[in-house]
């Protein structure tokens, strides 16, 4: 079954451009992962400092490979001081048809 999630975080005031650059570079790497199907980055129209990333991986193994990629740790280390949250807030999603 596909692994689908929404990652959310808010850039601190004045860090939006740096966060956008970081996430743009990271997105290019993630999209090259064999098991990544979707990695779309959005900002909230009413609050451009709020970033939402919609991610879909082929399956749990592909998601675990993503978590263990060598560029993930450095990305998170660079991102953490630039965002308001302690880390990205992850919401795992199931397709509607998965619910009885």
Descriptive notes:
It comes from Streptomyces boluensis. InterPro entries: ABM_dom, AI-2_Isomerase_LsrG, Dimeric_a/b-barrel. Keywords: Monooxygenase, Oxidoreductase. This is Antibiotic biosynthesis monooxygenase. Residues 3-92 form the ABM domain. The protein has 100 residues and is α+β, with helices and mostly antiparallel strands. The protein has a single domain, classed as Alpha-Beta Plaits. The protein contains 3 helices and 4 strands. The chain has helices spanning 16-31, 60-67, 72-79, and strands spanning 3-10, 36-44, 47-57, 89-93. It has a 4-stranded antiparallel β-sheet. β2 (36-44) and β3 form a beta hairpin. α1 (16-31) runs antiparallel to α3. The model has no long low-confidence stretch (mean pLDDT 96).
Task: Kindly summarize this structure in a few lines.
This protein has helices at residues 16-31, 60-67, 72-79, and strands at residues 3-10, 36-44, 47-57, 89-93. With 100 residues, it is α+β, with helices and mostly antiparallel strands.
The CATH topology name reads: Alpha-Beta Plaits
- Name of the level-1 CATH class: Alpha Beta
Number of DSSP E strands? 4
CATH architecture grouping: 2-Layer Sandwich
The value of Rg in angstroms is 14 Å
As a percent range, the share of helical residues equals 25-40%
Q: In angstroms, what separates the terminal alpha carbons?
A: 16 Å
**Shape field:** globular
Question: How would you describe this structure in keywords?
Answer:
four-stranded antiparallel sheet; Alpha-Beta Plaits; 100 residues; oxidoreductase; 32% helix; AI-2_Isomerase_LsrG; monooxygenase; monooxygenase activity; alpha+beta
């Amino acid at each position: 079954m596909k692994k689908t999630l929404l990652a959310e975080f808010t850039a601190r005031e004045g860090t939006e451009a740096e966060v956008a650059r970081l996430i743009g570079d990271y997105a290019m790497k993630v999209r090259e992962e064999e098991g990544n199907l979707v990695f779309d980055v959005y900002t909230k129209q009413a609050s451009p400092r709020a970033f939402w990333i919609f991610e879909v991986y082929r399956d749990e193994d592909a998601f675990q490979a993503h978590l263990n990629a060598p560029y993930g740790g450095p990305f998170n280390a660079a991102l953490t001081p630039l965002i308001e949250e302690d880390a990205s807030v992850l919401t795992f999603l199931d397709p509607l048809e998965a619910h009885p």
